[in-house]
Design a protein that fits this description.
Layout (H helix, E strand, L loop, with lengths): L4 E4 L1 H8 L3 H9 L11 H7 L4 H11 L20 H4 L1 H4 L4 H13 L10 H13 L2 E5 L2 H8 L7 E5 L1
Parallel strand pairs: 1-2, 2-3
Length: 161
């Protein structure tokens, strides 16, 4: 069995905030995984709202996740305090080439009808590819699959929530 690093998109965070039982069950099940679920900064920004209810809910869920390249985040790998030693992909998730690749993905992806290109979804796929093998938990599996299809040899499983 392959251990996959799990990456959340904004839909997973929204599902957690709405207290979806399936999202909550998936999230709690990941507490035993060696690598914490990854929430990239743009996804957090997309889902974050400053109201007290959202802040409280996020405080419960984000402690179980890692937000790469942020000082305040929980280390990505449980039991390892040094970020580079814990996960190289988390330590250097995005480079100039990563952002260029995201732009290329927007042009190449065959999105479902009436869907617009979404750079945050493309960045989620890049983060997952860097962590490969990975699994993305998403409310937009067709969009994520379209971006994943633009990458050669990416070992990513897309899981709808």
């Amino acid at each position: 069995m392959i251990a996959r690093t799990v990456v959340y998109d904004a839909g997973m965070l929204v599902a957690l905030l709405r207290d979806s039982s399936s999202a909550r069950l998936l999230h709690h099940g990941l507490r035993a995984a060696p690598h914490r679920p990854v929430v990239i900064g743009p996804v957090l920004a997309q889902a974050w709202r400053p109201d007290p209810e959202t802040v409280h809910a996020f405080s419960q869920y984000l402690k179980d996740c890692t937000v790469p390249q942020t000082r305040e985040s929980t280390p990505p790998v449980r039991g390892v305090s040094s970020l580079p030693a814990g996960c190289v992909a988390c330590a250097r998730t995005f480079t100039l080439d990563s952002y260029k690749r995201a732009g290329a993905m927007l042009a190449e992806a065959r999105l479902p009808t009436k869907k617009r290109p979404d750079v945050i979804d493309a960045l989620v796929v890049i983060a997952a590819a860097l962590h490969g093998p990975a699994q993305i938990l998403t409310s937009d599996p067709d969009d994520i699959a379209a971006y994943t299809a633009t990458l050669d040899r990416a070992d990513i499983v897309v899981e709808p929530i």
